[in-house]
Amino acid sequence: MSPHFHPVDLKKAYRLLNHGPTVLVSASHAGVDNVMAAAWACALDFDPPKVTVVIDKITRTRALVENSGWMVLQVPNAGQLQLTHQVGSHSLAEQPDKLDQAGVELFRVDGYPAPLVAGCSAWLMCRVIDEPHNQTTYDLFIAEVVGAWADERVFVEGHWVFEKADPALRSLHYVAGGHFYAIGEALDVEQS
Amino acid sequence: MSPHFHPVDLKKAYRLLNHGPTVLVSASHAGVDNVMAAAWACALDFDPPKVTVVIDKITRTRALVENSGWMVLQVPNAGQLQLTHQVGSHSLAEQPDKLDQAGVELFRVDGYPAPLVAGCSAWLMCRVIDEPHNQTTYDLFIAEVVGAWADERVFVEGHWVFEKADPALRSLHYVAGGHFYAIGEALDVEQS
């Protein structure tokens, strides 16, 4: 585990997703670990923090999430561009060594069942809230965030500091066809 | 209506939200128009395109969305930073001239009931799919996108071109406390 891996107050966990980054979804069940990329993840509530994420039925990760009831949503960064795209474009079903090929290193936090991806900028440990209609009809999963961490070099005392941190730690924002944007310039409102 | 307001193929409409921008939600019912900001909006499906958005019960906009069954999700830009924050921090209930105060100019597109906010970078006309459990329990709305448009200076033939366009047209990504980021540098994966 990186020395920069620091806990985030659950009341501020929504801020890790608020700016709309693409995430990696990791899960584990019956000895199988997997990781996929998901652009369609979103905060849903502040306290307790909740999230939504869309996970297609064709993904191998979905079965792991459904069977274990747990997943991690983590915020990959510019330094993980290739990794993010690789886990988003290959399935464990056709590439059994997918995680090795993509250079994914997993780690665990005591007390939580789902694996985390090393090198990300933030992590949300999520317990799935069973919503069969949403899952079946829309591939939409709702989960409660029960643990949150961030790389303290880019998320400091409840605030992203992309403008001051190593550019490799900027979040990724996927569009399509291998085309991403990194998060950019800080813009602060004039408070009246 | 701006000469740069151009239709977007519905099959590519998901790209307007894929990178996670903060949106403005506009709606109208019984002669009342309103606009609010929402950071928790997300694509949900490709074809037909669907979206999710979280709209708190305390907002005036929510009643307009529920009563009319229509809303527009639009992507405001760096040139609308103050406007976006103002419509996100004031309610029509306490400030009846909220839209004027924030400098919001609305326009309509023939055949669609919900009003659009001028000056944004993209617009998604959405028909609400009635999901009472999600709306009541999570403040979560699901809608189908039935019309999409973008400013052709920043979304060209199905692709965002933030890196080439006027920086004032960059999307906004809200964190908290009046602190936003603009979308940043384009990062393209090396295709193997």
Automatic annotation (TrEMBL), chains A, B:
One of its GO terms (molecular function) is FMN binding. It comes from Pseudomonas japonica. This is NADH-FMN oxidoreductase RutF, flavin reductase (DIM6/NTAB) family. Residues 15-157 form the Flavin reductase like domain. Keywords: Flavoprotein. Belongs to the flavoredoxin family. Its cofactor is FMN. InterPro entries: Flavin_Rdtase-like_dom, Flavoredoxin, Split_barrel_FMN-bd.
